[in-house]
């Protein structure tokens, strides 16, 4: 049994990484939640009509050995500044509205961000930028997201990662991306009826959005739209259209160098809010 450490918000004690069903804030899984250990099992277990059950199954997936080792090694070794905290150390499920009008698609959890807090884009500088902007344009209740018990709420918005485990150097392999793909496609299928706008963070999120919609039988413009900041494309299916917006990822590399500014991020997310008719 690993050492028990206090959650920074609740003070409850948890091992690191955290087993399912032990009371971690926002943990969707129970001890009996089925665990995918192979790509075939991911495809099978992704077939559920219930979003909460899908989140639970995502959160215990063990189908990619390299990613499992990495996320759990990070959860045990920890960054020095978080050494006194337990780490989630599991896949990060989607989070936000169950009937979102805006869907934000990212790459993967950060090793010391969502892999620590258990909530997507929470606890790292990329998340700091993203949530501050979401708040400014009316898509988040508060400007910060620090842990899964901080009371933050998204407004008619949901966030998902293309790959659900933190990868080394933030670079999943093609095989890992493909193994994880049924999770995002299944999640999209469960929420797409309400979605009006998709914001793709970076080329990885852009490609994942196009692939996932194509998997549901939707069609993009021809020729295939190419990613760029502020680029807009139209996805058609189910008798209607969804707007796809490209946005540079709020990574430290992009924000520190000025490639992505607050105004640029606010512009894309503000366009998403307006297109989704969110006050």
UniProtKB/TrEMBL annotation:
Signal peptide: none
Region annotation (Disordered) ranges: 1-34
InterPro entries in UniProt: UDG_Type-4/5, UdgB-like, Uracil-DNA_glycosylase-like, Uracil-DNA_glycosylase-like_sf
Domain of life of the native organism: Bacteria
CDD domains with a match to the protein in the record: UDG-F5_TTUDGB_like
Keyword annotations from UniProtKB, A to Z: 4Fe-4S, DNA damage, DNA repair, Hydrolase, Iron, Iron-sulfur, Metal-binding
Entry similarity comment: Belongs to the uracil-DNA glycosylase (UDG) superfamily. Type 5 (UDGb) family.
UniProt-recorded name of the protein: Type-5 uracil-DNA glycosylase
UniProt organism field: Nocardioides caricicola
